[in-house]
Design a protein that fits this description.
Blueprint (H helix, E strand, L loop, with lengths): L37 E6 L2 E4 L2 H9 L5 E2 L13 H6 L9 E3 H17 L4 H11 L57 H6 L1 E2 L4 E2 H4 L24 E7 L3 H8 L5 E7 L8 E3 L1 H10 L3 E5 L2 E2 L2 H11 L3 H13 L2 E5 L7 E5 L9 E8 L13 H13 L3 E9 L17 E8 L4 H10 L1
Parallel strand pairs: 1-10, 4-7, 14-15
Antiparallel strand pairs: 1-2, 2-9, 3-9, 5-6, 7-8, 10-11, 12-13, 13-14, 15-16
Helix pairs in contact: 3-4, 8-9, 8-10
Length: 437
């Protein structure tokens, strides 16, 4: 029986425009669009993209990956949405967060500084100075995105950074010239054991130079050394005599206090293994590194297969649907292997939940997902309740195909694909259709 195609359901509100199906130049694109090799790395068994420009292009052009702190597009903001909406008329210049959330950032910064060897008293004093309330100029607020680091003529322009009036950390910055060779201060045994926080490696391996020994009166922690501070407005209870009287009556007044954010959070893009391999193998626009070494296609296939046993089959299904114009995403939320979107998640709801199986020419073989009639009916009911259709993707092995063939991506040449849509047969509806005929 031939399946009935149901048009994808478009989302009611679309907040962005469609750019491109892939992050590479296409035949109809203008000639000024260049082919770019994006960079990713494997960290804790996850494929992560850290470059902001690569993140923007990979997600906007093909909707590859998801933000590690967001549901889809990497758009995490430290601001709390409810507070922003309540004060929408005042047009605040900086993100607004609650006092409770700000205290969490303080605790994270405190733990990070303690891990760098500072004692508790130094950490407390440093954070108190760094997060003290600021009276910012109204005309030219020192936002990180607006404060120029250099003038147009190449000279340094006046900045609030380093000014003791606005920068409490200025008094910690040593005015003494750096030593020409800081390595002389450390013996060889200390260098072999010294850890580089920037590269997460030993100093002797990464090639970085150790910093000068820090005296007790010169705490310059790495966590607070960034040139660009992030400013936030913290909603706190007003501390005044009138506020105390109102508090006694059961009323609390809130005020916004400008402070530095002691713990900045940057959101990365996480690619699924199927997405990363498609960008490397099919499009050739991604380089994946592990411990700073670029991985070959075969090595990447081997690593992904070792960490995810069903990777070869799910990738073949991913490759098939991507080539047909769908945007596949991981279907774990609905108990399947893949979800298929038209154009991308911002424009349409997922149309199909896909289960992948690999079989021989007689549709026989050990199932990857053993299903009883009861579990199949439950999975189908779950899929229908979220307005999707259950689709089986059968990967049909050619004659002579063995398990050893799955050791390389060349096995896809010996695979055929057949799709099967599962629909629930309802007797009463079937009778009505027959009566109409």
């Amino acid at each position: 029986m031939e399946g009935i195609f149901h048009a994808p359901r478009r989302k009611r509100t679309v907040y962005e425009s469609y750019e491109s199906p892939f992050p590479i130049p296409l035949s109809h694109d203008s000639c000024d669009r260049e082919f770019k090799i994006y960079q990713a790395e494997i960290i804790n068994n996850c494929v992560i993209v850290t470059n902001p420009e690569d993140i923007e292009r990979l997600y906007s052009q093909g909707y590859f990956g998801k933000g590690i702190l967001s549901r889809s597009r990497p758009q995490y903001s430290v601001a709390e949405q409810e507070l922003q909406i309540n004060l929408r008329g005042s047009k605040p210049q900086f993100p607004i967060i609650s006092s409770k959330k700000y205290q969490c950032h303080l605790e994270w910064a405190k733990e990070l500084l303690k891990g760098q060897g500072l004692d508790l008293d130094s950490v407390t004093k440093l954070l108190d100075d760094y997060t003290s309330p600021l009276n910012l100029p109204e005309e030219d607020p020192p936002a990180a995105s607006e404060t120029p680091l250099e003038g147009d003529n190449g000279e340094e322009s006046p900045s609030l950074e380093g000014n003791p009036m606005y920068d409490p950390l200025a008094k910690y910055i040593s005015t003494e010239p750096d030593a020409k060779d800081a390595v002389e201060e450390w013996d060889k045994q200390s260098l072999e054991k010294m850890h580089c926080h920037k590269h997460d490696d030993l100093i002797a391996q990464c090639g970085c130079k150790p910093k000068r020994r820090r005296g007790p009166n010169q705490p310059i922690p790495r966590a607070l050394e960034d040139d660009k501070h992030e400013y936030v407005l913290v909603q706190e209870e007003e501390q005044s005599s009138e506020a105390c009287e109102d508090h006694a009556k059961g009323e609390t007044k809130k005020q916004l206090v400008c402070r530095r954010n002691p713990f900045k959070i940057f959101e990365y893009l996480q690619l699924s293994r199927e997405e990363a391999f498609f960008l490397c193998y099919t499009l050739g626009c991604l380089t994946v590194r592990y411990e700073k070494e670029p991985l070959t296609i075969l090595k990447l296939w081997e690593i992904f297969g070792a960490s995810q046993p069903n990777f070869p089959t799910t990738y073949m299904a991913y490759h098939h649907f991507r080539s047909k114009g769908w945007v596949p995403k991981i279907g774990l939320k609905y108990g399947t292997d893949l979800l298929l979107y038209r154009k991308g998640p911002p424009f349409y709801h997922a149309s199909y939940s896909v289960i992948v199986e690999i079989v021989d020419e007689n549709f026989e073989g050990r199932p990857l997902r053993p299903l009883t009639w009861k579990s199949l009916a439950g999975l189908n009911r779950t899929t229908v309740n979220v307005s999707k259709e259950l689709l089986f993707c059968f990967l049909i092995k050619s004659h002579g195909f063995t398990e050893k063939d799955l050791a390389s991506p060349g096995c896809m040449k010996k695979i055929k694909v057949q799709e099967l849509i599962l629909n629930r047969w309802i007797a009463s509806r079937e009778r009505m259709d027959q009566d109409e005929l």
